[in-house]
Design a protein that fits this description.
Arginase, Chain A, binds zinc ion, 7-stranded parallel β-sheet, 332 residues, 37% helix
Length: 332
């Protein structure tokens, strides 16, 4: 099943934030799928479980949540920090306040709606084997603060909520976004029930830019770092890494796949440029993941994560067409 509603799209440009996420990449994918599968509908937002403060505080520190839900100024500081909108000289960066049409509270509410979608989509996957939410994947959010354009960690909040509700005991987070997944390893570092995997650029953000804002290297259960020029080894090393994870912690109750499209060679984010997979290699990556989990009967829930510029939507679409041909997305 596909989970999507346009009200969950972040539309950074309406807040004056200048990040090259094309505002309509998710709606592009959804429209193209709806053309093929006319029964696909927007997710009914009223049917979603609301994410409570208790849900958030299973993952994030009370102090961080206090500031996010505190005064307008405290919230603004947390958002400036997360999206790196102020540079070390105190000047605005990738942010033009003149273009800000919406309040930061609306951004927070939309992000929480995304968490609800990741949660609903994962619940569906747990019952039915597969789901894809066209949003979410805020994989740099740490327990104590938002980082790298990710304010709260939707995957971690979902998994801890599902555990608290007695729906799952164990899970994997498999992160194939080009940037190393570091939020989940930080959050779950003392929790052996959730295993984390990341395949990413060996160098580059968030690993070595050397400023105080940037996080340190936080090990996942299994990490695979791909160096510049090693694109042709990507698939084989992905497979070897997942086999290692499978050997160390087999049969999780659920996997959440952080399905970033930014390893794609036509991705437009400068900090994503050290891995450059072709469109075909991207499809092979996603088909491999799908079959790896399916053959082991592991329910799989996908979130979009990073994918920048005019072409990234095609990567999501080609994978979902493949899944549709195999499952027809079963009507709800
Ligand atoms: Zn990324």
């Amino acid at each position: 099943m596909i989970f999507y509603h346009p009200d969950c799209d972040l539309r950074f440009s309406e807040y004056g934030i200048e990040i090259p996420i094309v505002d309509d990449r998710a709606s592009h994918v959804f429209s193209a799928l709806q053309f093929l599968y006319p029964f696909l509908q927007y997710t009914n937002l009223k049917s979603l479980d609301k994410i409570s403060r208790a849900d958030l505080e299973r993952v994030h520190t009370k102090d961080f949540m206090h500031r996010l839900f505190g005064t307008a100024l405290e919230r603004q500081e947390e958002i400036y920090r997360c999206y790196e909108l102020v540079n070390s000289d105190g000047q605005f960066e990738r942010f033009n306040p003149k273009n800000q049409k919406r309040d930061w509270k609306e951004l927070l509410d939309t992000i929480l709606l995304q968490v609800s979608m990741t949660n609903a989509s994962s619940m569906y996957a747990l019952k039915n084997g597969f789901s894809y939410y066209l949003g979410g994947g805020m994989h740099h959010a740490m327990s104590f603060a938002g980082r790298g354009f990710c304010l709260v960690n939707d995957m971690a909040i979902t998994l801890r909520k599902m555990q608290a509700d007695g729906l799952i005991k164990t899970a994997w987070i498999v992160d194939v976004d080009v940037h190393k997944g570091d939020g989940a390893p930080e959050i779950f570092k003392n929790d052996s029930s959730i295993k984390t995997f990341s395949i990413h650029m060996k160098e580059g953000w968030p690993l070595n830019s050397g400023t105080v804002r940037d996080p340190w290297f936080i090990p996942s259960t299994v990490d695979v770092g791909i160096d510049v020029g090693e694109d042709d080894q990507y698939l084989a090393r992905l497979e070897a890494g997942l086999l290692e994870l499978d050997e160390s912690a087999p049969n999780p109750d659920l996997v959440i796949v952080v399905n970033g499209a930014d390893p794609y060679e036509l991705d437009e984010l400068p900090s994503a440029s050290f891995i450059n997979l072709t469109k075909e290699q991207m499809l092979n990556r996603d088909k491999f993941l799908y079959q790896f989990f399916k053959s082991r009967n592991i329910p799989q829930s996908y979130v979009m994560a990073g994918g920048y510029g005019e072409k990234s939507w095609e990567i999501y679409l080609q994978f979902l067409k493949f899944v549709g041909e195999n499952t027809s997305f079963q009507k709800k």
